[in-house]
Amino acid sequence: MMDEYGNDVWNYAYFLTKSTEQADELSQEVFIRAYSGIANFRGECSLKTWLLTITRNTTFTYRKSRFFRSSLWGETHSFETEQVNARQGEMKPEKYVHPSAEAEAISREHVHEIWDIIMALPDKFRELLLLHLKYELTTSEIAEMLGISAGTVKSRLSRAKAKVRKQWEERSE
Questions:
Q1: What is the pLDDT of residues 22-46, one digit of tens each?
Q2: From CA 74, how far away is CA 152, in angstroms rounded?
Q3: Considering Cα of 79, then 81, then 85, then 91, what sign does the dihedral take?
Q4: Residue 62 main-chain phi, psi, to 5 deg
Q5: Whose CA is closest to 53, among 2, 4, 9?
Q6: In the UniProt record, does the keyword Membrane occur (predicted)?
């Protein structure tokens, strides 16, 4: 399970917390919970969706904890640096036969700018885009995972994409 879904769990925890240290701790906790609760896995959703749900619930429980609230004041690391490092190797380069160094640099810069826009969105939009774009979950899987209706997922996805598109166009002007 860890080999196949470890990166997905860590990345999702990272996107929810914006901290590599917290993502490390949370992903370990997720797999401990998954291993101890595997007998409760009913197979009504994919294993990936189940693990991401555990990740989400564990993260929200962690956020409510006193430790998380107090640790927010002590953090001095740069989110932008972590964000760039977290995405290394995850970007999907544009399809060129042999991309030039310039084309590759421009492509990566655009990907970084788009993810910067996504990361600045309110949680409810950012999380949906992440689940949809990065983890390729269906509308119904997202709805089940978040405990909201499929119509709400579609509506929020549409609004989130519109917000990203608008901010991208404003940056490009």
A1: 899 999 999 999 999 888 888 888 8
A2: 36
A3: positive
A4: -65, -40
A5: 9
A6: no
